[in-house]
Specification:
284 residues, alpha/beta, 60s Ribosomal Protein L30, Chain: A, 2 domains, four-stranded mixed β-sheet, globular, disordered N terminus, OmpA-like domain-containing protein, cell outer membrane, membrane, OMP_bac, OmpA-like_sf
Amino acid sequence: MKRFLIFLFFVFPFFVSAQEEFTVYFESNKHDLSKKQIALLNDWMIGNKESKVVAINGFTDEDGTNAHNDTLSQRRVDFIYNVIVKNHIKIRGDFKTRSFGEEHNQSKIKSENRKVVIHYILAKDLAREEEILGIKPVQSVVAEVVPIEEEDMHFPANATLEEKVALAKPGTRIVIKNIFFYQNSFGMMPTSKPAMDELIDVMLKNSTMVIEVQGHICCVDADRRNLSLERAKQVRRVLESNGVDQKRVKVKGFGISHPKFPIPEANEEQALANRRVEIMILSK
């Protein structure tokens, strides 16, 4: 869990005091809220229609294994995210999620550790949003590139990602295999660690390379929740939290518009090919 989980701890910069917090609490081993906590969350949403969420952090108590608690805290974050999106609360495009599991300063009262904290900026402070988040304006210009499908590059059989990138031209799309997400969620499964480690290594070794992370989904007639884009953003968050400059990683969600096989798919193999994350090299 070494490198991959770094993003769970150091993902967001320190904020100045204009950032607000709201906390909801969960019952033991639950990722959804009780009626009482749902009511509190509803009250918060009613009072913050014009506020903007910038981060959502999930926590658990110390019961259970580290792996179980990491997954549980991520599912709590996903639950809150889905509720606030459904209620049209504003969310910053590059908002951050952190799943601390049990790795945080534990209260002696277990129930206080089972929580999600929403960080947000009030409507009256949004004019100073970039200042509050400590973000300096960055201008980067990437020349227009012509997409090249991976199959057309004729990479050697069993070539590693690093080898493919070395041979690739600007515009080349490369499928990043074995990045898995929880169903109907942008939450990345722990089994994605080896693939993400490989991508992180390639981005750090090729320090000037700029890519676009492209998300695709399968099995539905439309990407109504823009899940393909949210998954691409999650890949960018992991890269950024592991030392890759955000300006080097663009994101795009294609939904079902670029399937490898016709939808509905004939089998799970075709669905898996359609449900993918690719990178397109914009410049090297």
